[in-house]
Specification:
This protein has helices spanning 86-90, 131-137, 140-149, 165-170, 189-203, 265-278, 332-335, 340-363, 378-388, 406-419, 432-458, 501-555, 570-579, 588-591, 606-613, 623-631, 640-647, 661-674; strands at 5-8, 29-32, 37-41, 58-59, 76-81, 97-101, 104-107, 116-120, 123-125, 152-158, 207-219, 222-225, 240-241, 243-246, 251-254, 260-261, 281-284, 287-291, 294-306, 314-325, 392-399. By secondary structure, the chain is an alpha+beta fold. α3 crosses α5 and α11 (432-458) runs antiparallel to α12 (501-555). The two termini are 51 Å apart. The protein binds adenosine-5'-triphosphate (ATP). Adenosine-5'-triphosphate is lined by residues 82-83, 85, 159, 161-167, 172, 287, 289-291, 327-328, 398. Keywords: ATP-binding, Cytoplasm, Cytoskeleton, Microtubule, Motor protein, Nucleotide-binding.
Length: 687
Amino acid sequence: MGVITERVSRSRSGDRTKPGSRGSTGDRVHRSATFSGESTLPGSRGSNRGSANSLNKSHNGSLGSLDDFDDCDNINVVVRVRPLNEKEQNRGEDSIITFPGQGQMLLEPQAENIKAKQFRFNILFEPEATQEDVLSHSGAKRMVEMAVEGYPCTIFCYGQTGSGKTHTLTGPPHLFRKAPDMYSEDHGLVFRSFVYLFQVINEQKDKDFLLKASYLEIYNEKVIDLLNPVQPEPGKPPRSLMVRWNKKKRAFFVENLFTVECEELDDLLAVLEEGLRNRAVASHNMNEFSSRSHTILTVYITSEQKAAEDSDVYISKLGKLNFVDLAGSEMTKKTNSEGKTLEEANNINKSLMVLGTCISNLSDPKKKTGHIPYRDSKLTKLLADSLAGSGVTLMIACASPARSNISESLNTLRYASRAKRIKTKPIVVMDPRESLIISLKREVHILQQENDQLKALLNIGAHGEVPAITNGTPGTGGDARRRPSIAKLAVDKERLHELKTEELIELLQEYMANNTALRDENLDLHTLRDALMRDQDVIIKENERLLRKLEEINSTCSRSPIVPARPTYSADLQVQSLSQPSTLPNTPERNGHGSGDGQVNVWTNPRYEEKKNSSPRKSKVPKSVDKELEKRQMKGSDNIKGKIQQRTPSGTRSADGKKPKSQAIKNDLAARRRAGASPGRPPRANQ
Ligand SMILES: Nc1ncnc2c1ncn2[C@@H]1O[C@H](COP(=O)(O)OP(=O)(O)OP(=O)(O)O)[C@@H](O)[C@H]1O
């Protein structure tokens, strides 16, 4: 494969030219169009700002996230190298990683007689890269867009302890400790992706969306619900959940995992805050706030769209966006772990080893068809679908540049290179009956096109008028069994007057026979369409039945005990993100938490608002079902979102269209407390 590489020096006006911005991204982000790979170079040290390479080419324009997913059947891998931290600087350590450009990085040789290691990745973030750079150039935006389109997407951070995984995903530890500053530039990928997600949803006015979120951690091989960490007894560790195999979907899932319906950006941010508050963190030699568990934050995105303008049938897609923050691998000697922290480290290392084996086997064409040990850890069970299933995956490999961490950095980069070779088969997740409707509709469309084509070939008008005879040789196609050969119809217009009366009669008869055949064909198409409509009716009835079932299940459930300990920010953030290219710009106006022009742009379900103001759609449901719906006061609501909004107290809105969310959630929390669930859990680790 030819190597086309480029260094990015983006200078589009308005991108990062504001005062106080940190220069063009070109200094901080390297990009290469090649596959990542490792090679060994003679022990030369590249320059830290290696722009003097003939292959480097300045890239003026957007390095959008979309183009970073050309080969989305591969796991997309990017690398982020953090700056040297204070401890390392105080020890006088220097950086052993250099960036010669073209998406390359060089790791200085560990000894005189050893050669320097070279790696190349599609995207490489230097220590100076900002959190916004990571969102814009890692392909994370594309992941958000694909999740909205119905794909299961996963973004995970991998690397040794203290390499910057949590920093990349959620920002520095102080950010969420008290009431978080929503406008901080330190916010990580999760926060920024949430803001972008609502931007994308806002733009798709023709769809209804239903968002839900869950947040879990895998701590010492136990799955804990971070949104509903129920303690069996005070002082006892929270109850763990089971990971089970779903035969139908052929995937693992966590049983009884709590999911929270999120109507606004603030709801998602509350989920993030609550999870971060509850996750296990401890201090050791290499990281003061080290994650002691793997966490998976999932946003489930259900979208509904009309199958056609005038159709009563809705197509729903089920996208998913997973953010996985892995606990870092650690050498227990280096971290001086003992007691509880040592037990945690052993469990972390064990599950990461299984993950490493899975990645290694999947990237090897000979081994990938054999046994992949997903079942050996909870982490790999839950990541199996992202690694080799129908999902799209972005891996952010985090590395430390310090000399003392060279062997760990090498390991991380080798894993990253291997992961890049894994192939997946991304598919949109859809209701099977709905995909059947789509394929039947496609078939009808093709048949109609074929019919039109045949008519055009025979030059038959819409009302079957006698065609003019052309010079052309008609093509073949359509139902040739029933229709007479049209070869004979190709008579030169000029020669018409030469034909005898019998020949003219014969020609006319052939045309009439053709006409009859086409009419038959059209009749067939109409019959097929009627059959499709009958199918649709059946599906509508089935949907109504399922919705009633859902209603029953939901009436026995209550909502999450999440209380946002802050005012709402959704409107401000969305207004900003729409008006600015940077997702979280830090202007004085925004620090005042105001949108400036006083206009708020809160996302509400457009279809729901429409429906509130219009009469309900005429349903094709039989009377018996209609009666049942009436009994349950559900009549007239015709999609999931509408029904759920009618059903849940959180869906109710005040006159200005904005729902009194925090009060509703507080009420829910009180109800859950009365029901005996624990509102939170005490810190588990030695933080
Ligand atoms: N790119 C960066 N810029 C500035 N500071 C960073 C960066 N990456 C990491 N840090 C800082 O380094 C410290 C360790 O980072 P972090 O906690 O994210 O590491 P980690 O890989 O998640 O570690 P662990 O696996 O132990 O949880 C934190 O104080 C963090 O803020």
